[in-house]
Design goal:
The structure holds 2 protein chains of 2 kinds. By secondary structure, chain A is of the alpha/beta class. Chain A folds into 2 domains: 7-268, no CATH class; 373-425, no CATH class. Chain A is 19% helix and 41% strand. Chain A contains 7 helices and 21 strands. Chain A has helices spanning 7-24, 32-40, 110-116, 134-141, 374-382, 387-403, 408-421; strands spanning 83-88, 91-95, 98-99, 106-109, 147-151, 161-167, 170-174, 177-182, 187-196, 200-212, 217-225, 229-240, 245-254, 257-266, 272-279, 286-295, 301-311, 315-324, 332-342, 347-356, 362-370. In chain A, strands 3, 4, 5, 7, 8, 10, 12, 14, 16, 18 and 20 form an 11-stranded mixed β-sheet that branches. Chain A has a 10-stranded mixed β-sheet with strand order 2-1-6-9-11-13-15-17-19-21, covered by helices on one side. In chain A, helix 2 (32-40) runs antiparallel to helix 4 and helix 5 crosses helix 6. Chain A is globular and about 65 Å long. Chain B is of the alpha/beta class. Chain B has a domain at 2-90 and 166-252: P-loop containing nucleotide triphosphate hydrolases (Rossmann fold, 3-Layer(aba) Sandwich), CATH 3.40.50. Chain B has 10 helices and 12 strands. Chain B has helices at 40-48, 72-78, 95-109, 117-130, 135-139, 148-162, 178-190, 206-210, 231-239, 242-252, and strands at 2-11, 14-24, 29-33, 54-62, 65-66, 80-83, 90-94, 141-142, 166-170, 197-201, 215-220, 223-228. In chain B, the strands form 3 sheets. Chain B has a 6-stranded mixed β-sheet with strand order 6-9-10-3-11-12, with helices on both faces. In chain B, a hairpin with a 2-residue loop joins strand 4 and strand 5. The relative contact order of chain B is 0.18. Classes of the chains: A alpha/beta, B alpha/beta. The A-B interface holds A 373, 375-376, 378-387, 389, 393-394, 396-398, 400-401 and B 48-51, 71-73, 75-77, 81-82, 84, 87-88, 90-93, 97-99, 101-103, 105-106, 109, 141, 158, 162.
């Protein structure tokens, strides 16, 4: 496969992206380290293990323009009570800003937080990914607006935050960063939602950076419901303190081409991380979940569960890395990835990666890829269900373990999207 | 109601049914008995539309319709129900959700309005009582962790919910203790009526003490070799199958 990208090609892409983002509006200053990384890191190719099944050569052709129309999209999950914020193509449109002052909670756009509390956001544009991955460096070199959640020590958010990122019709690029800081013994719940218009194309290169303090908890639901033909790169980075609890659920409800890079670092003892995900590409769609958890300290726990179905000629990728550092004794790490293939031309690449340098740990992982149970299908059909109704029920059952963890409004939405897309309604 | 004529069927290269003919009238209960490997379960599977079998010759008509032209779903919509010998466990799908989906799927295909939530629940209650299925089993995943008896009671519960015209019971007595057998038989008996026929497939006569058939047939070597009234079952229990199978062999020779 000839995917060698001449340096000038990806440098040219970076220039085009940077120009389009600047024209639309940047937030803060690009990070110097990210700019240097952008020069130094090679453009990903399928010869690199991390990018083996993920072709990004076609990105080089993206020629984005700054969007002219920044109309707010319709609200999502309208029945959910939350502090809502809307962003279109990396620009803040409107929202229910919460500002309790310098010592209190803040929820609002990053741009406003930078204006009001620059000292609380020191080093905000830097993330671990931005010096390691070319696309993350690109994001940090021309960062745009996203939601900022700051919860100081001992406080908790009065209501969940719902940040809605939208890409309008046309070929655009958007590079939002969502930023979450949960202080020691503080708590927050948030929903990060991305969707786009039916005729949208281009690239969404989005970063989520969160830190969860000692004894703190963060519950985050990520919903990706993107019916256009946008290429979505996600860089999701989490750092956890001692005795902290992170619950992260990602539903890739619909995506033309999507890669999520998730990295969780347990930077303290007795940290607890739950991360679940589900995905269901069909047609020629591509969905890739690359996850990594670092157990860097003793007595931590992690529970990872990703489930998905690939239909038609689509491709799904799952790569789950568990890194257990030398001092991380007595940790318990559990990973599971299950897949269903529907259609002879659908592909699934699933790979667990365990690196264990401590000697007293419990790690388990399991990965299955299969097809619908023929006997179960016959049973359902013998009771009068059509083939599609039977499929729908079996997929619902298959994904229940993951979907039931979301709040009901979101679970129902995601299930409805799955059902509609595969003609199961 | 059901007419099977000279049915030949095979799985892979093995011919299992070799010219089976059978006729069931409306409201009749027929029992099919026979030694192991005679083709009893194959017949049940073919009636319900399992695709593993290939019918090479013969015909099945159900209410004047060529049954072999219908797939499994369409047969259920036409009013055929198979109580499985080995009911399938479906983790993650609650019994109630399963039945609601099945019932409304059938109603939709028959161009009937879906059942209201209230009517559905009333029906669930009545049918569950029939086979003494308690609330917990209704809400649990389909057959998951059910005992053998609970699975069979669940089959009869589904049958009561779906109200078929023809119910095929495939070895429903296997794995049942005497109490469960009585409950299952009671469920079936209370559903007998002028518009509903039953084909009861069993290896043992004891089920037929409780579900008394109008006719008894012996299936051996892929064909019905002997038919009689309910008293035939007792005779079979006493003498075994050999005398019929041997007589048949002599006749053919």
């Amino acid at each position: 496969m000839n995917e060698v990208a001449a340096p000038t090609q990806h440098a040219a892409l970076a220039a085009r992206v940077s120009e389009a983002c600047s024209q639309a509006g940047l937030v803060g200053e690009p990070h110097a380290e990210a700019l240097a990384a952008l020069e130094a890191i090679d453009y990903p190719t399928t010869r690199q293990e991390r990018w083996r099944y993920t072709r990004v050569a076609r990105f080089l052709e993206v020629a984005p323009s700054a969007p002219a129309d920044l109309t707010a999209p319709p609200a999502v999950v309208g029945n959910l009570e939350a502090l809502r914020f809307t962003f279109v193509a990396g620009q803040y449109i409107n929202g229910d800003v919460l500002d309790e002052g310098a010592d209190g909670c803040f929820a609002g756009p990053v741009s406003l937080a930078l204006e009001r509390y620059p000292e609380r956001l020191k080093g905000w544009s830097k993330s671990d990914f931005s010096t390691r991955e070319w696309f993350a460096a690109l994001q940090a070199s021309a960062p745009q607006d996203g939601v900022c959640i700051l919860v100081p020590e001992g406080k908790s958010l009065p209501r969940p935050v719902l940040a809605h990122h939208h890409m309008p019709d046309g070929v655009h690029v958007s590079q939002p960063r969502d930023l979450i800081h949960i202080g020691n013994n503080a708590a927050a719940e948030a929903i990060l939602w991305s969707d786009n218009a039916a005729q949208s194309a281009g690239m969404l290169n989005a970063a989520i950076t969160a830190s969860v303090g000692d004894g703190a908890s963060l519950s985050l639901e990520i919903v990706q419901d993107e019916p256009g033909s946008v290429h979505h790169m996600g860089h999701h980075h989490f750092t956890q303190g001692s005795n902290s609890k992170l619950t992260l659920r990602t539903a890739t409800a619909c995506a033309h081409w999507l890669r999520n890079d998730l990295h969780i670092v347990q930077d303290g003892t007795h940290a607890d991380s739950t991360f679940h995900g589900c995905y269901l590409p069909n047609g020629r769609q591509f969905v890739d979940h690359h996850t990594r958890i670092d157990h860097a300290h003793p007595d931590g726990q992690s529970n990872e569960l990703y489930k998905g179905l690939a239909a038609d000629k689509s491709t799904a990728v799952f790569n789950g890395k568990i890194m257990v550092h030398k001092d991380a004794q007595r940790i318990e790490a559990y990973q599971s990835n299950s897949n269903l293939l529907l259609g002879e031309q659908a592909s699934m690449y699933s790979k667990p990666e365990l690196e264990i340098y401590a000697d007293d740990v419990r790690c388990s992982h399991g990965c299955t890829t299969g097809q619908f149970d023929k006997e179960a299908l016959f049973y359902l059909r013998s009771r009068g269900m059509t083939e599609t109704a039977a499929h729908n029920l079996l997929v619902q059952a298959f994904l229940a373990e993951v979907l039931n963890g979301f709040r009901p409004e979101i679970r129902d939405h995601v299930h409805a999207v799955f059902s509609r897309r595969l003609g199961w309604n | 109601m059901l007419k099977i004529d000279n049915l030949h069927a095979q799985i892979g290269d093995t011919e299992i049914l070799k010219g089976l003919s059978l006729e069931l009238g409306a409201g009749e209960v027929h029992a099919i008995m026979g030694p192991n490997g005679s083709g009893k379960s194959t017949l049940a599977s073919i009636l319900a539309g399992r695709e593993d079998y290939e019918v090479t010759q013969g015909s099945i008509t159900f209410d004047g319709v060529d049954l072999l032209e219908l797939d499994a779903t369409e047969r259920a919509v036409a009013g055929i129900f198979l109580a499985f010998q080995y009911p399938v466990e479906i983790p993650g799908v609650s019994n109630i959700n399963f039945l609601r989906t099945a019932l409304n799927s059938i109603r939709e295909q028959r161009e009937e309005a879906p059942l209201s939530g209230k009517d559905f629940l009333a029906k669930v209650k009545a049918c569950a009582q029939l086979v003494e299925l308690d609330g917990k089993l209704r809400d649990r995943s389909v057959n998951e962790g059910f005992s053998g008896g609970e699975k069979k009671r669940n089959e009869v519960f589904q049958m009561a919910m779906l109200e078929p015209k023809l119910a095929v019971l495939d070895e429903t007595d296997s794995g049942l203790d005497i109490d469960a057998l009585r409950i299952v038989a009671h469920g079936v008996n209370s559903m007998r009526g002028a518009d509903r026929s039953f084909l009861v497939i069993t290896h043992y006569q004891r089920l037929l003490d409780h579900i008394v058939p109008d006719f008894v047939h012996v299936l051996a070597g892929g064909r019905i070799v002997h038919s009689g009234g309910k008293e035939l079952a007792l005779e079979l229990e006493e003498k075994g199958y050999d005398w019929i199978v041997d007589a048949q062999a002599t006749e053919q020779a």
